[in-house]
Amino acid sequence: MGSLYRYPRLIILLLLLIMVAGSAAITTMPRLEDPHMENRVAFVITRFPGASAARVEALVTEKIERKLREVAEVDDISSSSRVGLSFITIEMKDEVEDVDRVSALLRDKLAELTDLPEGAADPVYDDDRLYSFTAIIGLVWHGESAPNYAILGRHARELDTRLSNIPGTDFVRTFGLPSEEIAVTIDDDMLAAMGMSALDVANRVFAADSKNSAGTLSGEDNRYVISVDGAFDSLERIRTIPISTNADTGIATLGDVAKIERTHRDPPDSLAYLSGDYGVVVAARMLEDNRIDGWMEKVQSMLDSYQATLPENITADIIFDQAQYTHQRLSDLMQNLIYSAFIVIIVLLVTLGWKASFIAGSILPLAALASLAVLNLLGFQIEQMVVTGMIVALGIMVDNAIVVTDEVQGRLLRGERRSQAVARTIRKLWLPLMGSTVTTVIAFMPIILMPGNAGEFVGGISASVIAALITSYIISFTIIAAMAGRVLTRSDPVQDATQGQHHSRTWWRDGVDAKPIRLAFRRSLHWSMNHPRASLLIASALPLMGLLLASTLDEQFFPPADRDQFHIEMTLPAQASIEETRQLVEEVHARLAEDPDLLSAHWYIGQSAAKFYYNLLTNRDGAANYAQAMITATSPAAADRMIGRYQDRLDRAYPHVQTLVRKLEQGPPYNAPVEIRIHGPDIETLRELGEQVRRVMASVPSIIHSSTSLEVGRPEITIVPNERAAATLGIDLRMIADQIRAAVDGASGGSIIEETEDVPVRIRTSNEGRTSLEGLRALELVPGISNREADGSFSSVPLTALARLEVKPSVGSIPRRNGERINTVQGFIPPDILPETAFAEVNKRLDAANFSVPPGYSIDYGGESEERNEAVGKLMAQAGVLGVLMVIAIVLTFNSFRLAAITFASAIQAAGLGLLSLWVFGYPLGFVVIVGLMGLIGLAINASIVILSELKNDPAAMDGDDEAIIHAVMSTGRHIISTTLTTVGGFMPLILSPSSFWPPFAVAIAGGALFTMIVSFYFAPAAFKLMLGRKSQSRQDELASASPDLLSRAGE
Fold first, then answer.
1. What is the C-alpha to C-alpha distance for residues 540 and 525, in angstroms, rounded to an integer?
2. Are 338 and 365 contacting, i.e. CB atoms less than 8 angstroms apart?
3. CA separation for the pair 1027, 1040 (Å, rounded)
4. 1037 pLDDT exceeds 70?
5. What are the tens digits of pLDDT across the range 523-549?
């Protein structure tokens, strides 16, 4: 590598290569707000209309779960069996990399299901809910009239098509559009006059929809597929279906006796209420290998042309644009990167002088560009973690360049020839700096090797740092060393003495020479050498204090996001209808609209909101009593003010509603920050245990709302028939259920296929049994065929003549986890309360209440606590193997176990100093802090290796000479101080950032690095001297034991 000094043109070509490759990476790398994570979560949704939660669990959920469990890559299966709906969440193992293959296996298992009950729909496999949408567009209906969803639906489908056709679009989904259907409404009296029931009509309509194949005609020469013409393709076709034949009136068609219209299901499944008007939401997601700014430009261009096709009372507006947040996030981080680089350059100028600072500082753009080129080749995107990794690397990547530049400069000032100074510097430093680089790389390896989404989320930090470390090492020993040899000033001591020349020291040329500080530093080192054991104890005091204080630090998995958005979730009692939820949303929105801090509020009724942030959960399908709002404030500070204010106002105004005003969080998602799960077989016992825990949880002041996942108490109307009376009319219990369902929900009668859509035909009667209990009581039942007149006519029977109606409480939702029934008690907290604090208080009160579960039941914990423990466990899983590799690297660097032990002792103390820094600044201990401590350990090892290598290469120091040890330590002082100050300076923008995410991380590394200088200067040299003393004593003991032998042999 030293030969590069002789080829300046090669240096220029290498510089050009780095600049071109780095610039190309900046131009072509995809840009995202958050890291891309593998989609290891999927959902299976199965509708079973009219079935109770218990029937859904037994007949649908359990069977699907059993089938899914056959796939070995499945880790956890959670489910919720609700009235008419089975919702199953599948989590794959973290080790799964080929997600598409596992998804194909799961789909195959679902296709094998043959024993689902009649009336249950086919299970729908949905694996498109993990990622947030890139653009969310609202189609809003304006005007006094009620929204026409047929028109809105037509325009929404057109917008869906246009978005899908934009290059780079991954997925498009529509929200708030009620299901479309063909409604066939028949008058009860007319049905009775024809001697038919609604089920009879539905069966005839269904029989007229000839979509089935009529077989295949195979001859010797030809093969023909046979079909019967008459499949439903229009409303007119449905109107012409013959329903009954009468000798007097002839053939009656469906159009003669029923009102047939295209409409939307009533009540609707879901609605969208967008800033005070109803509409439809169309959300699109970009492929992760695209640049978000370029893709959004295409979306905006398409939307401009699409607006011209809309009627005056419909507008299409972008209600969420992720590109704005991505640009803001990356701009802030890039600004921090520039500030950090500027601070690093200033530090280098002060400590090294302008020439040396220029050379050492040139590593920053070169290593940054080279790192981006490497990351681009490895398929990374430019997102917040990658950019943060570059900021972290700023203070680290300059270390090698400082050491190399300082060494070359020292040799040149001692009169060595330029080529000789470069060659000897490389020969001396390549191994110890490789050792320090390798150990720092290993320190960051657990992050990038960590499996699962948590590892993928923060892995960009590790990837950036590792790329920067490796490229900076290579560049330092090639380009930087060659530049230093050519640019730095050389002195010739002999010639200067002959000519009487003396170069006076100036700070801007040679760096600051703080003589009083230098003398005081030397005196302190003298004291340390004279009292090595006391020096060890004093240097270890602060790290030990940090390790002891670590147990007093609050714990926080990930801090909340700093964003001008938050969300509101409102859950009404389980029996609430979507109409009641809609009225609540309108009233709440009217209250919130008066707030000057509010920019927009978009509500989703009956389902989860379109995912506008990466860790929001979207698992509330078919929840008529649920609404969620995406709230955008005028600023992040305004959002923080609004959260507490809204929570208080809405709780007081609507005490019967569970209202959660929630700040957006970082890290893996969870349903509630505090969760206690109770496992067991019996629903009633689970309910009682869950209610005990919930009461205790509700007594904790920091818990603002609590709930249980096992919903018991939902009103259910039970029909209790008189079987004997029904049997005399030829009516069995199944006929009663079928006729009531046809009256309440309508009966299916085929479907119209339009392009790729299947629009169902629903036959229903015009009575009021569909909407009120009184109408249900007045429902007329049709007797069996055997009890009708010869001409088919009949006398209907009131339902109340054959049965009584009872309203009973029932189970609204039955949750399960990995095949067991569970009841999860959830606690929700204000944003200024740490989950771990609330969790500890809940556990304390449960212990005080002597809460326990009976045999056959168990308890475990979810929420933030579970996610944190799992993530930290995965992070530390590789620590053992990587620790051994680190030991190997250091032992090979020094060829000494004792020096390696001193290095590792310094590393452990550095971790203690990082924890002490957290305690001083009052930050909690979180996942990103642990990541930072790993990086700090690498930095501490670097400093120890530099000092111990200098001591090991000095024969006098190896003989235990105090002056030699002091001289060696002081000779490394300038670049140790320079590298430490550049590290601290590089993190200053993150430390001073208004964000709540990065300051704890930056304080742990920067504060720990600053304190670690004490360990580097007063622990490592003192330990080195004591090691030599023990080694010398050991040799003397060996010689003493050998002396009698030698004397006796001499006497012989």
1. 16
2. no
3. 20
4. no
5. 999 999 999 999 999 999 999 999 999
Q: Which of 589, 586, 659 lies closest to 631 in space, CA to CA?
A: 589
Least Cα distance to 393 among 987, 882, 926, 943 occurs for 987
Q: What 3-state class would DSSP assign to 366?
A: helix
Mean pLDDT of the chain: 87
CB environment 922-957: b (16+ within 10 A), e (fewer): ebbbbbbbbbbbbbbbbbbbbbbbbbbbbbbebeeb
Question: Confidence class of residue 476 from pLDDT cuts 50, 70 and 90?
Answer: very high
Q: What is the pTM of this model?
A: 0.85
Please state the three-class secondary structure of 242-310 as a single string.
EEEEECCCEEEEHHHHEEEEEEECCCCCCEEEECCEEEEEEEEEECCCCEHHHHHHHHHHHHHHHHCCC
Q: How far apart are CA 601 and CA 615, in angstroms?
A: 20
Give me the helices (H) in 94-135, please: 99-111
User: Which H or E run contains 4?
Assistant: none
Sign of the C-alpha dihedral, residues 810, 812, 815, 819?
A: positive
> Using an 8 Å Cβ cutoff, are 853 and 678 in contact?
yes
Q: What is the pLDDT of residue 707?
A: 93
Enclosing H/E stretch for 820: strand 820-828
Q: What domains sit in the chain, N to C, each tagged with a CATH number?
A: 1-30+353-490 (1.20.1640.10), 38-129 (3.30.70.1430), 180-264+746-766 (3.30.2090.10), 516-560+863-1037 (1.20.1640.10), 563-664 (3.30.70.1430)
- Please give the Cα distance from 838 to 835 (Å, whole number): 5
> CA 126, 128, 132: angle at the middle one, nearest 5?
145
Q: Please provide the size of the chain in residues.
A: 1052
Could you identify the residue written with the tokens 């004591």? 1026
Torsions phi, psi for 845 (to 5 deg): -75, -30
SS3 201: helix
In the chain, the N- to C-terminal Cα span, in Å, equals 59
Q: Which two tokens stand for residue 122?
A: 């086919």
pLDDT at 1040 exceeding the cut of 60: no
Lowest mean pLDDT across 462-466, 578-582, 784-788, 939-943: 784-788
